[in-house]
Amino acid sequence: MLSIADKWDQIHKASDFSAPADILLENYFLLPEKGCALDLACGLGANALFLAEKGLDTHAWDVSKVALNRLQERSVHKELKITLKQLHISSCDLAKNSFDVVVLTHFLDRTLCNAIMESLKPSGLLFYQTYVRDKLGSSGPKNKQFLLARNELLQLFSPLTVVMYRENNLLGDLQYGDRNEAFFVGQKC
Asked: Nearest CA to 133 among 182, 186, 184?
């Protein structure tokens, strides 16, 4: 049986680079002009590259050495400085009041929520986008442990002030809108 790191190394060897997450692209104007940002469970690092391009001191953490190596190559090519860290993320890795921005996409570990909020500096922003249980098609994980229940991000991060939240699910005309993910921006008071 493959370890988590080996599993993700294999996935990232075969993956293409993608665009930054919609949560960032649609809400980039909320980012501070300067500060420290973390792309947590960064994968190939499209969000980290975006944050660095916006002038933030950017950190990218992931369990996959392959993903981080590929991100390093890309950041050097783009002449961007990103601090990389390979680790299986746990609560003790997230120091209190360390980041002005934390970004998570397509990663869900409910045991980290309090540590994520504590890692934000006062007025810090959390950008979160991940898969929901009530979705169209088969994108994302199959295991419900890694899928959000309806409005769950609002509950998990209730101490934060909600700046933006969207979860379209199966409402309205199903031909339009993102139906497979929840989008959240919250601010620490």
From this structure: 182
Q: Which CATH superfamily is domain 38-187 in?
A: Vaccinia Virus protein VP39 (3.40.50.150)
What pLDDT digit, counting tens, does each position of 91-125 carry?
999 999 999 999 999 999 999 999 999 999 999 99
pLDDT of 32 strictly over 80 = yes
The total of other beta-carbon atoms located within 10 Å of residue 35's CB is: 19
Q: DSSP string of the chain?
A: ---HHHHHHHHHHHPPP-PPPHHHHTTGGGS-SS-EEEEET-TT-HHHHHHHHTT-EEEEEES-HHHHHHHHHHHHHTT--EEEEE----GGGS-TT-EEEEEEES---GGGHHHHHHHEEEEEEEEEEEEBSS-SSS-S-SSGGGSBPTTHHHHHTTTSEEEEEEE-TT-S-TTSS--SEEEEEEE--
Write out pLDDT tens, residues 36-53.
999 999 999 999 999 999
Instruction: Look at the alpha carbons of 180, 117, 23, 155 in this order and tell me if their dihedral is positive or negative.
Output: positive
Report the chain's mean pLDDT, rounded to a whole number.
Answer: 93
Each domain of the chain, given as residue ranges in start order, spans: 38-187
pLDDT of 177 strictly over 70: no
